[in-house]
Amino acid sequence: MSVGSSPVRFDALSKTHGTAIYPGDRQLDDALVAKIVFTGQPHARLVSLDISAAEAVPGVVTVITAADVPRNEYGLTKFDQPVFISPSDDDSVAVATNVSRWEADHLAMVVAESLDAANAGAVAILAEWEQLALVPDIDAALDDTVLVHPQDGTNRYTHLKIRHGDTDKGFADADVVVEHTYEVPYQEHAYLQPEAASAWIDESGRLTVEVAGQWTHEDQEQIAHALRLDLAQVRVIYPSIGGAFGGREDMSVQVVMAVAVQKLATLGVHRPVQTQWSREESIVGHHKRHRGRIHAKLGATSDGKITAVHAQVLLDAGAYNYTSNKVLGNAHLCVTGPYEIPNATVDSFAIYTTSPPGGAFRGFGGPQGAFVAEMQMNRMADVLGIDPVELRRRNQISDGSIGVTGAVYPAGVSLPQVIESCAERSGFDQPLDQGEPFSPFASLPANPAAVRRGRGFAAGLKNVGFSFGFPERCEAEIHLHGESDDTEPIKADLFHAGAEVGQGAHQAFLQMAAEATGVALDHFEGHFSDTTNTGDSGSASASRLTFMAGNSIVAAAEVAAKAWAEGDRPAVGFARYEPPETDMLDAETGQGQPNFSYGYMAQAVELTVDTETGHIRIDRVTSTHDVGRTINPELLRGQVEGAVVQAHGYVLSENLQVANGMILNPRFSSYLIPGIGDVPTEVDTDVLELSDPLGPFGARGVAEMPYITYAPAVVAALHDATGVWFNEFPLTPSRVLAGLDAAADAADRLGGR
To answer: Which of 672, 683, 701, 532 has its CA nearest to residue 601?
Structure first.
């Protein structure tokens, strides 16, 4: 049996020995170097652009500008972003191309013989700007005085609604109402390798881009759209990828590199082009997790039954949509939590500002929405004096439950089992020990009088696969090889485009292919992520690859087995898997079937806080997940532990500072991702295998799930330790101290009355 085992990864040696080729490692003969020039303008109109001095720099071959782009627009779900900012507007595209709305909008690209020459050319570019009024944040955007995209008529360009039941009556029936406003922050993806790519025209005349991405065929479509080419004229290849987390789902260097190669060809220069961003360019130049403001109101009876939810979700989309309209949808659904909600009113908005764009990031809006839902549940439990696990038991969804969109949850709801397993395994109902002495500074002794311990709990759900009617599909092809008289295949090939971004997807694909065909795993060879020989797999996002790829592989195996039985050699099996359709929610009522499958999770967190310094140590995380069926136990554990560590940074240390649309700390010396000394002391991965009726071998997705509930569990644990609630994070020492001091001052004022 291949599924359920943890064989040595086929790429283990290359990645541990340093021989794996990532985009920045490629060394092409006679390659030119490209330098992308950012505008540095969060909101300004380009009056004039002079590249003549740059073109005259020794070693500069050409300078690419908007004039070289056949169709100067791109965007994954909405064409609202220019490839390059132009001194003149282009009426033939959907976006005004003469306005920079983000400091990392692209002004030009210098192609040169060396990086030094490219940098010198970049400095020599002269641009004249007319400064426009900034829209730096949600507050500035809401009154629509200054419009980021005037053609939309408003900065609130996406509005999702839920109108379920009678919310007014629900609150009238409530004995207790909890109402708060929460702020959720930016987060940088901080993947291992910054953006890099190589581009050339291959021997068959195809424009070829080798890059790190998350959806080869979407990259291909975006390039073809901007360059007015047929898809067959564009090839996209993914080599090894040093992390993604949603940060590579949208375009960065793909389109501009293709434009550069195309222009060079018109100049008679047939040489490859390569580029690689610095870490600072990467942090400034790609989208972030959405910051936002969410107001929520929760009503319940004295025995803990929820009666109503009201929420308003405001997500800062930044300068361009990227995937904000889709991210908003997940926040929109998750803000009510995985509970039986008889009455709900939710209004959610994606809002343009002149700040860094928000886009895809692990969890895709789920962490923001779930933070609020679970904070409200924990605060309600506190007010009612009910154990937080028990409050969830009294309201949890189960098979047959109807959600706030009026749709029955897809079969296989396992939230009750997940909650029980997490509570039992973590010992949530047991007294919390005092733990080990804790000092945040090695040079100072611990002060036991300042140390507090606490425990928190949270539960959640997350969609598997695309949602809200977005087209969903995944293709796979299997070739079985052997002689005509062979009864069993002696060799097999798997062709699949699903991106390997460090999560071990390609290993899992091969294991599922071996399981489905009965061919030994070591007899399989994988051919991955090349638009010339792999069908469209969709993106490596939405916790969907195991689910979608697995179903396409199983179906392809069936076709190949039939061809083998009929005597074909090689026996070829191609399949396209399409899951049950989902719905766009009704514009007025929010009713519809938004998803075809979910993953369910719960987390219990134990922490220690030093109340004199504000430092927090996470002592134990119990992370419980129903994965349906484990394809590879080691890969699964890596996904859980990796997600917890990434969520840990989001909640405790990663404080991206943005002022007037400009990122102030674009380096790891001041943007603090967790180091080995910062991560939770213990991560206990608790796996349930309750089969998803639709999943391959019963499997669900898991990649995003451990992220969803971490923030509210940590904040609840901090409250348990200190008696103070926090409505925003990251929980940096300064913020913790400020919160504790404010609570103490408030208590003193009350005591003095």
So the answer is: 701
Residue 674, preceding peptide bond in cis (omega within 30° of 0): no
What span, in angstroms and rounded, lies between the C-alpha atoms of 230 and 232? Answer: 5
Q: Measured between alpha carbons, how far is 133 from 113 in angstroms, rounded to an integer?
A: 39
Continuous segment of H or E residues that includes residue 556: helix 545-565
C-alpha closest to that of 322 among 361, 284, 349: 361
Cα torsion 477, 478, 484, 485: sign: negative
pLDDT of residue 137: 98
Separation CA 696–CA 710 (nearest Å): 28
Instruction: Please give the pLDDT value at position 437.
Output: 77
Strand 126-131 to 156-164 pairing = unpaired
Picking from 585, 647, 602, the residue whose alpha carbon sits closest to that of residue 332 is 585
User: If you search the block for the tokens 């994988």, which residue do you land on?
Assistant: 526
Which pLDDT does position 276 carry in this prediction? 98
Q: Specify whether the CB–CB gap between 465 and 615 falls below 8 A.
A: no
Number of C-beta neighbours around residue 563 at 10 A: 19
- Burial-class residue 1 by CB neighbours within 10 Å (0-12, 13-18, 19+): exposed
Residue pair 506/537 in contact by the 8 Å Cβ criterion:
no
Nearest to 715 by CA among 634, 651, 626: 651
Taking CA atoms, 506 is separated from 9, 497, 615, 675, in Å, by 9, 9, 40, 28
Which residues does 450 contact at the CB level (< 8 Å), separation at least 6?
610, 611, 612, 613
Backbone phi and psi for residue 183, each to the nearest 5 degrees, phi listed first: -115, 130
DSSP string, 33-69: EEEEEE---SSEEEEEEE-HHHHTSTTEEEEE-GGG-
β-strand pairing of 207-211 with 524-528:
unpaired
Domains of the chain with CATH codes: 26-133+192-285 (3.90.1170.50), 292-466+587-747 (3.30.365.10)
- Residues in CB range of 91: below 8 A, 6 or more apart: none
Q: Measure the CA–CA gap between 732 and 711, rounded to whole angstroms.
A: 13
Given a contact cutoff of 8 angstroms between Cβ atoms, the answer to whether 65 and 51 are in contact is: yes
DSSP sequence for 683-729: EEEEEE----TTSGGG----TTHHHHTHHHHHHHHHHHHHS---SB-
How many C-beta atoms surround the C-beta of residue 226 within 10 A?
25
The 10 Å Cβ neighbour count of residue 482 is 17
Centroid of chain to Cα 187: 10
Q: How many CB atoms lie within 10 A of CB 587?
A: 9
Successive 10-residue mean pLDDT values, the chain, 753 residues: 94 94 96 98 98 98 98 95 97 96 98 98 98 98 97 97 98 98 98 97 96 98 98 98 96 97 97 98 98 98 98 98 96 98 98 98 98 98 98 98 98 98 97 82 83 97 95 97 95 98 96 98 98 97 96 98 97 98 96 97 97 96 98 97 98 98 98 95 98 97 96 98 98 98 89 64
* Tokens standing for residue 164: 């379920």
For β-strands 344-352 and 306-318, DSSP reports them as parallel
How far apart CA 361 and CA 560 sit, in angstroms, is 36
Strands (E), 233-383: 234-237, 273-276, 292-300, 306-318, 344-352
CA distance 300 to 304: 6
Q: What is the pLDDT of residue 442?
A: 73
Residue 428 phi, psi dihedral angles, 5° rounding: -60, -25
The Cα 544–Cα 100 span in angstroms is: 35
